[in-house]
Amino acid sequence: MVNENGENGVTKFYTNGHTTFDLNVKQVGEPTLVQPAEETPKGLYFLSNLDQNIAVIVRTIYCFKSEEKGNELAGEVLKEALSKVLVHFYPLAGRLTISPQGKLIIDCTNDGTQGAVFVEAEADCNVDEIGDSTKPDPITLGKLVYDIPGAKNILEIPPLVSQVTKFKCGGFTLGLCMNHCMFDGIAAMEFVNSWGETARGLSLNITPFLDRAILNTRDPPKVEFKHQEFEEIEDISGTSNLYNEEMQYRSFCFEPKHLEKLKAKAMEDGTLKKCTTFEALSAFVWRARSKALQMEPDQKTKLLFAVDGRSKFNPPLPKGYFGNGIVLTNSICPAGELIDNNLSYGVKQVQEAIKMVTDDYMRSAIDYFETTRARPSLSSTLLITTWSRLSFHTTDFGWGEPVISGPVALPEKEVILFLSHGNERKSINVLLGLPVSAMKRFADQLQEAD
C-alpha cells in the first residue's frame, strides 16, 4: 500500500531516540533578544479560549541552500528582517504569563527586556548529511532548534525562539520553536512567509489581524454540546502497558494511486455517497492503529482532529487572523466496531465529526473551556494533525524555497502527522510512533492492504 521514505528503498527510522548520524552543532556567541524595529503597543495581549487548549511547543526546521549566495549573511539578514516583521506581529516579542482569570495571556512591556530569542550556530558537516526531515528524528534535528536552558514550563519559554545554523556547504537551516497558543498552522505559516517577504524587501502579502477578542466567550457562557473531545476514556485494553516497550517512529508515504485506492475501498459497499482523501486516510490509520494496539472490542477509542473554523464562524474570521482559528472535533466508538466493519464505517465517523463543526459548536467549545478549564484528554485517543495543506515549502528568505522543511518531532505519542510529500505535493507522509510490537502489526496491515 505504501512506500517507506528512504534512499534506494532502505527503511530509515530511529528507535527510542537513537540515530545513526551524530550532528555536531556549535553555538556562535550568546543568544540575543530581537525587538520590534518600531514602537509597538504595550500591555496585556488577550489570548482566546481556543488558544488556551493547545499551549504546546512546536519545533520546525527549514533548510536552505543556494550555490550563488552562500550562507555568510544568513544570520544578519534573518535577524534584521525579524525585527521589522515583529512590528506587525508584536505579541511574539512578549512573554507568556497568567491572567487574573487564571488563563494564559501575553505581557508586552516593550521596554527592552523582551524580544524574540535569536541564536546563531555552525555545523561541522554539509546540509545533505542531516538526512530526511520526513523522518521524525528529534535527536539530530533537535540540535538545529534552540532550547531555553533550565526552562521548567511554557511560561519560561518565549513565544518565538529561532536558530540559524550555517553548514560547511554554504547552506543553512532555520530552526523555530513556537508556542501553539500564539497561532495555529495557518497563522504560523502566514507569519513565517511574512518574515520571508520582509527579508526580500517586499511588503506583506497578508496583514495580520490581531484582535482575538472576536473569539471571546459569550456572557453568560452557553454550552450546547457534549464536547466529548474532553472525555477521559478508561483503558480496559491495558494499552498503557504496551507503551513500556521501546518506542519506534516511522514514516509511511501514501502516493496518489494509494490514496485513490483507499477512497475506492471506502466507497465500495455503497454506504457513502462521497469520500475525501483526508476522510479515507484518517479512518484507515485510526482503524489500523487500534488493531495494532490490540484494543479490546469493547474498548472505546477516540479520534481527535482539528478543523479550520475560519470560514465556519458566523461571520467568518477576518483574513490574516493571528491566532488559533481551529477547533478540535471528535468521534468515539468501540474499537471492535471500527476494526470489524468495512472502512466506510470509520469514514462515516470522520464525516460526522466534520459535519458537527458549526458556529454554534465552536462557540460552545469556547464557552465550555470558560466554565470547566478542561483540556482535551488523550486517553485511548488518536490525534491526527494535518500539515499537508500548509505552505512549508514556499517560505523564501532570499535563498529560494527550502530544500527540506518540516517538524522536528511528534509532540505526543498519541499524535499522528499528515505531511505533503513529493515535488507536486500530492503524496502524503504519515508520521507516527508506536511501541515496537505494535509498529510491526501496523506496518503489516499496510502491506496486506496493498
Automatic annotation (TrEMBL):
Its EC number is 2.3.1.144. It comes from the Eukaryota. Keywords: Acyltransferase, Flavonoid biosynthesis, Transferase. GO terms for biological process: flavonoid biosynthetic process. InterPro entries: CAT-like_dom_sf, Plant_Fungal_Acyltransferase. GO terms for molecular function: anthranilate N-benzoyltransferase activity. Pathway: Phytoalexin biosynthesis; methoxydianthramide B biosynthesis. It is an enzyme of class 2 (transferase). Catalyzes the formation of N-benzoylanthranilate, in the course of methoxydianthramide B, a phytoalexin. Phytoalexins are produced in response to infection by parasites, and are essential for the expression of disease resistance. Belongs to the plant acyltransferase family. This is anthranilate N-benzoyltransferase. It comes from Chenopodium quinoa. The gene is LOC110681813.
